[in-house]
Structure formats: C-alpha cells, structure tokens
Write a structure and sequence with these properties.
The chain is mainly beta. Helix content is 10%, strand content 40%. The protein contains 9 helices and 48 strands. It has a 5-stranded mixed sheet with strand order 3-9-8-5-6. Strands 27-48-47-29-45 form a 5-stranded mixed sheet. A hairpin with a 2-residue loop joins strand 42 and strand 43. It is globular, with a radius of gyration of 32 Å.
Length: 806
C-alpha cells in the first residue's frame, strides 16, 4: 500500500502582500492610520458577508428503513452564535455513498429555527449516509460550511443488492509546522495527524531521519492520532518520517521543505492570564539588522488585539496577548512583516467560560412497561435556564446498534464548525480529561481556519463576488431559467408568472435577470403540489422555461465510513426489525398525522374581493357568457367582430375598464382571456371580482376576475404552449410525533403492541418547561435522554440522562 505524508499548511494568504498595500496611503506604522481602516473593513465585510451556522439535533443516529428520522434545526449567526431571523428556509438532505440524494426536504425557519422528519422508505439499502443541512445563502461558501452528520440505516426487509466490501485501511500522516514553515536553524514545533481515509485517528509510532539516515527524533500521538514534536532543522538538509503501524506495516515520505529564510511563530500559554507569542526570523541579509512587524488577533471576524515590535535576526521577539481580549472559541493570530505581508498564522482556542451546566433527571431510575416517566430539567445555581429557553429533547433506546452522539451543540458551534476537515470526537475537547489543554492545542495546530480568507476582507472589493445564491428573506425562492426557443439564448427583463396551489392559491410575478434567471418569492406553499410557470404576458409560446433545482449540487466533503455489523448487532437488529414492522402495522395512521400550517392570511393575493359569486347559489347556465351576462353585474360582455370581449365597471371611480383585466383560473393567469368563454361553467365553484386597478409587479391590470374550480387544480383547462406545469414540493408539512398515554388500567392493558424505540421527541420547548412527561413502551432496556438547545441568552445547552425499563 502506498501512503504519503503531506504538508498541508498552505500559505495562500501570502497573496495579501499586494492587496494590503491598497488599503489606504500610509506614511507611518501608526495604529490609527492602518488598523482603524482594517477594522472598518472587517465591520463592512461582516455586514456584507454574514455567516450562518446550522446545527441539527436528531432523535438518534441509527435507524431502520421503515422508521422516521426526527430533527430540530438550530439556526444562528456564524460569528456571534445568536439566533438569526434572516433565511426562512433550510434545505435538509440524506445523501448516499455515491453522493446522490435519497431524501430531500425544505424546512420553514423562524427565529427559533425549524423542525422536520424523514420517513425512511424500504427502498433504501443498508449503509451509512450523510445527513446535511444548509440555507441558500450558505451555498455561496460551499459544502465545507454545511452541517454534516453520519447516520446509519439498516434494511432488514429488502435483500442487499450487493455486499459493501470494506476498504483497505489507508493511513496518511500529515505534518504541520507551527506558524506555517520550517526555517533552517530555528527550533520549530511540528504537529502531526495520523488517520485513516475516514479521518479516524490511528495509533502508530514514527521516527524522523535526516538525509544521511541519522535519527533526529521519535514521535507518537497522544490522542486521536494527533501529537507534536520539536526539532531544529539545519540548512541544506532534508528530512523524512517513517511511520510504523500497529499491524507491522510501515511507510515513509519527505517532511515539508526547510527554508533558508523566513519566520517561525511559537504560541504558548504563559500561565498568568496571557498568551506568549515568540517570533524568530532568518533573513537573506546577514548581520543584526531587523524589521518592524505586527501581530493581529481576531475571533470570528472581530479584531481583538494588535501588537507591534521590532525583530532582530539574531534575537527573538516576544509578544504577550491578554487572554481577556480574546473572545471564546477559536481565534486567529496573524503575523505581518515589514512589507505588510502575512507570513505566519496560528489558531488559538479559548475555552468557553460559561458552558451551561444543565442536568436531566427522572423521578426514579427504573420503570415498568407502559409507565409514566416524569422528567426534570434544571440548571446549576449560577446557570439556570432562563424564562424562554429553546431546546429539543429526545428519549431513545441504546443498545449495541445505538450509541450516543460524539458531538453536541456546544462542541459544534465553538469548535468543529470553525475548523476545516473532520474533527473526531469533538465533545472530548470540552471534557476535564487529563492533558486536555495539550490535546486542544494539537487540534488547533492540525486543522485550518475555514470561515473566511484575508484577501476577501482586505481586497479592493468589499461585497463578496461569489454571492450567486440569494438569502431567502421572506420565503422559498423558486427559480427558473428562461431561454428563447428560436435560438436558445437567455431572455432578459421579461415578466414571468408563477402560480402555485395553496389555501388560498398563490401568484407571484418577477422579471428575468441578465442571465435569464427568474426567482419567485413564495410563502405559504406547503407539501407536494404543482406549480405553473409562464414567461411573458404576450407571446408565451416563444420561450422555454426550465425550473432550477434549489438543492446544492456540491458533493459532501466528508468520507462515509464502511458499514458493518457484528453478530451481536445482527441479533439486536432482528428484534428491532420486528418492533419496527409491528409499529407500521398497528399504528400506521398515527405515524402519518401532519399538522396543518397556520396561514396568516385566508384571502388570495389580491385580498378580499368586492364581489364574490358562488355559482351554486344561482341558476346554472351552460355557457360562461350567460353566467357573466345574467348575474355578474360588474362585468359586461360584448360581441365585436365575432369575438366576445370583457369589460369591468369600477363603481367607485365610475369608470369602465376594457380588455385589460387579469383573468385567473385557480390562480393561473389566462393571457388570452377570451378562452374563458369556452370553459365549462359547471366546473367553476366560485367567481371573485376586483373591479379596480391592480398593479402586479410592474403590470397595471384594470380589474381582476378570478375563477375557482371544484378541484382547485386548473381543472380541464388546456395549457397553452409556453406554459409549463411541474410537480414541485413546497415546505415540508410537520409530522406529529406519536406518543401514546397509558393513564388508566384499561389503556395499559390494550393488546395493541407498543414497540417504540424512540419514546419521546420534543423539537420545541414551550416557554419555561422544567418538567416533561411521557410513557415507556413495551421495550425493555436502557434509554438515553438527550437535550440540545439554547437558553434565552444565546448560550448553548446540552445535557444527557438515562433510565432503565424492566
């Protein structure tokens, strides 16, 4: 097996040497002149490039095909971690090993996030899958910013199409010189990470040898395949690492190149409330001459400290940064040389001081089947849950298949969401294990910053150039591309119409942009349905309309681990499968209950009509002309040149509007409204009339005549060429979690089996809830209680508890 050792500390930020010079004309190193300008650019950049973060709390992490995945979405500002109310839609997907989505949903977001579910169909094969979530705005930053989680799905009903063969273990060892480079004659800390192809750390031993074969030092990891060693590289020498794996295999490769000139930055905890930053330099020029340098520290795009100094090439320069200046979480230290080029970088982690200590307890440790469980939630004396917490709670059975998550909301927000690549067992770094500070520092040395690049902040432009996807401020954006049929070119600046089913129906108008893309802002559209789009209100048959997929097409960056089961797990799977099938047989109706979304407005887009006619209240006529002539007083029908024309009378202005009305059938505009006269009136349930001017987009209509059919789906009306109708899923309807109550002896003695492995799921706390109640099922064993969320101050809340059912 061929393995390699790669140096992945990229100094792409060296390109800043050019853009930094363009910040502003500077005649001195005065902080007021240089760094006030940088701080202003930081603030502007933060305003234009708002970062969003999403965290998904799932009810568990191992499922059977035929079960339901329940999830709660926490949506926050990526810098402050405070709740956001910007994007109104989150996209959630389950993606298979081949990077193909198998389930997708659009979830409505509010200031408290959102929640949803996936029923896992029996067509899924047994394997590990990626569950990911993001917003439209997050797509501009790429999949590295999405929330990703591995979930396991086993299918005991459908035979496997082919056995998934385990990959041969491919171990790599990546080496990271502290600060960025190895420089001759300067003692340097070298961090390393030895891991398999799935990012899981490997325990191994290694040696460093020089180009004549002498052993320089030994190294081995301290935790998760991560560790460090220190040595002084010599000029003109090259170095090689040889790694010995536990199974006897070994591999070797070259270490990063040693530079004759450059800078080395070493960061340590001074143990007195300060961080010590030691800088050493080697220059092409000999002698004691030196240069001015400065150190800049920021935490998630907020400047925290700036230090200046003069470095002599024969002595060290030491900076001291007060820890109190840094915000909690990951800070970024950047060293700039005399030419204002960033020459070293380092990540530093500040452990959050006020991690909420929340406890979950039950009224007793052991319960019987179908017994009531009283669950209490409490904070410590100093960290009580405030009046309006926002948390979700899951209670599920744990066995050989189901294990607790290695990450919680605190570890994700403070740590792994701001690091590049996969972090193994992120919750460990918030524990009180021995040598935890060293483990955290090794993690900082081996993972890169991913939230932004310096050149994006200090370049000539402030607004990010990659904002191809707009934030969905008011609702879901349905986008389409319009091209001309004759030549295939995109069509710019034409009005397009979108009709969609809802209660009531919806209609949206928008113009195509310079790329022929039209985006309709849609709210109140839930569940599966049909959308109808037409381009132009004149010659619709001249255009082709293609609806764009709103989901990201980027492949997940995380490798999906091999799916395998032990004999004990297969036995547990059999009993779990029986329980799942029983639930789907006996309580199928309860599992398919959905909440009807609360609509803010029960009227169509044009509001309350002045006149509304329910045709069944009148004599039924055989033609639409007769209907309009006989009892629709605000519409006049006249025959001219063999064609029927419609006029609407505005009684308020005493004005007659001729031939410029907006005529609709079930919300779909009929551009050639004369076709309404050939439509069967027996299919029409209601006619609403708005006898006044109505501006839709930039089009000024002279009145509205809205026909609604009994079916409510454009019933029996033939679509004109140039109008497309496609099936389109709106926002996901909320599924009701099934949780039976056994309050009486009769209910307890019901013979309907109850094999729920997830006993309780509450995605949204209702005010100040410090106690919860639910009932156990017919399953025995250990059950885990997991709480995730925020208190009203925006502080992460995470807690676990357990009990047993006998």
């Amino acid at each position: 097996m061929k393995s390699s050792i790669t140096a992945t500390r990229h100094l792409s930020f060296l390109l800043l040497s050019l853009v930094l010079l363009t910040i502003t004309p500077v005649k001195s190193w005065a902080q007021d002149e240089v760094f006030k300008n940088i701080e202003q650019r930081f603030e502007k950049f933060s305003g234009y490039s708002l970062q969003e973060k999403i965290y998904l709390h799932t009810d568990k992490n191992f499922y059977l095909a035929g079960e339901i995945i329940w999830f709660k979405i926490y949506y926050v500002d990526g810098v402050t971690h405070q709740a956001l109310n910007l994007s109104k839609v989150a996209y959630v997907e389950i993606i298979d090993r081949n990077s193909k989505p198998v389930l997708q949903a659009k979830i409505a977001l509010t200031e408290k996030g959102g929640s949803g579910s996936f029923y896992l169909p029996l067509t899924l094969k047994s394997d590990n899958y990626t569950l990911r979530a993001y917003t439209s705005w997050m797509r501009n930053s790429g999949p590295d910013y999405f929330f990703n989680k591995i979930v396991s799905i086993a299918n005991t009903i459908k035979p496997a199409e082919g056995k998934i063969l385990p990959d041969s273990v491919r171990v790599t060892a990546d080496f990271f010189p502290e600060g960025g480079n190895m420089v001759q004659g300067v003692e340097t800390k070298i961090a390393f990470h030895m891991a398999d192809q799935y990012g899981k750390g490997v325990s191994a031993k290694g040696i460093i040898t020089n180009d004549i074969g002498d052993t320089i030092c030994h190294f081995s990891p301290s935790r998760f395949g991560i560790g460090n060693f220190t040595f002084k590289p010599l000029a003109g020498s090259s170095y090689k690492a040889t790694v010995q794996l536990p199974d006897g295999r070994s591999f070797s490769s070259s270490l990063p190149v040693v530079y004759n000139n450059g800078y080395v930055m070493n960061v340590t905890d001074n143990k007195d409330g300060r961080i010590k930053v030691r800088v050493q330099a080697r220059s092409k020029e000999t002698g004691p001459r030196g240069e001015n340098v400065f150190l800049l520290a920021h935490t998630r795009q907020k400047l925290k400290a700036v230090e200046y100094g003069f470095i002599n090439y024969e002595t060290d320069l030491v900076f001291y940064i007060d820890k109190s200046k840094l915000a909690e979480g990951i800070s970024h230290f950047t060293l700039f040389n005399k030419d204002r080029q960033p020459v070293c970088e380092r990540l530093v982690f500040t452990r959050p001081k006020n991690l909420i200590t929340t406890t979950i307890s039950t009224d007793k440790p052991v319960y019987e089947k179908r017994e009531k469980v009283n669950l209490s939630i409490a904070g410590s004396e100093n960290d009580k849950l405030t009046a309006e917490p926002d948390y979700s709670v899951s209670v599920y059975q744990v066995d050989s298949l189901q294990v607790p998550d290695e990450e919680n909301i605190a570890s994700y927000l403070w740590l792994s969401s701001d690091l590049h690549g996969q972090v193994e067992s992120p919750g460990f770094y918030f524990s009180n294990e021995p040598n935890i500070d060293e483990a955290v520092d090794n993690l900082m040395l081996t993972h890169g910053w991913r939230r932004f690049r310096w050149e994006n902040i200090l370049g000539t432009g402030i607004v990010p150039a990659t904002s191809r996807f707009m934030p969905e401020f008011k609702g879901h954006l349905i986008s389409a591309k319009v091209t001309r049929i004759a030549d295939g070119k995109v069509v710019r600046g034409i009005d397009c119409f979108l009709s969609f089913p809802s209660s009531p129906f919806g209609l949206s108008v928008a113009k195509t942009d310079s790329n022929g893309i039209v985006s309709f802002e849609v709210s109140g559209y839930y569940g599966p349905g049909e959308i109808i789009i037409q381009a132009s209100h004149e010659t619709t048959s001249s255009y082709r309309v293609d609806v764009l997929i709103p989901f990201a097409e980027d492949n997940p960056l995380q490798q999906i681990p091999f799916f395998s089961m032990t004999r004990k797990e297969e036995m547990d799977l059999t009993s779990r499968s029986i329980a799942m099938q029983a639930q789907n047989i006996y309580v199928a109706d309860s599992l398919r209950r959905f909440y009807t979304p609360l609509m803010m407005d029960s009227f169509p887009f044009f509001g309350k009509p002045e006149f509304s006619y329910r045709l069944d209240d009148y004599k039924r006529f055989t033609t639409m002309e007769e209907v309009l002539r006989e009892y629709v007083s605000s519409i006049d029908v006249a025959l001219r040149n063999g064609k029927l024309y419609m006029s609407i009378f505005d009684d308020a202005l005493k004005t007659v509007y001729s031939n410029e009305a907006l005529v609709l059938i079930d919300g779909v505009p009929i551009m050639d409204y004369q076709k309404i006269f050939s439509y069967d009136p027996l299919k029409v349930k209601k006619l609403d009339i708005v006898p006044r001017r109505y501006v839709l987009g930039e089009i000024d209509y002279k009145g509205i005549a809205s026909f609604e059919t009994y079916q409510g789906k454009f019933d029996g009306f033939e679509l004109t060429p140039g109008i497309i109708s496609v099936d389109y899923d709106g926002l996901q309807l909320q599924r009701e979690f099934y949780s039976p109550a056994y309050e009486t002896s009769n209910e307890k003695e019901k013979r309907i089996p109850d094999y729920r492995s997830t006993l309780y799921w509450m995605p949204d706390s209702k005010g100040e809830q410090s106690s919860l109640q639910f009932y156990t099922s017919d399953l025995q064993g250990k059950f885990l209680v997991v709480l995730q969320g925020f208190n009203a101050n925006g502080e992460p809340v995470s807690a676990t508890g357990s009990f047993t059912v006998e």
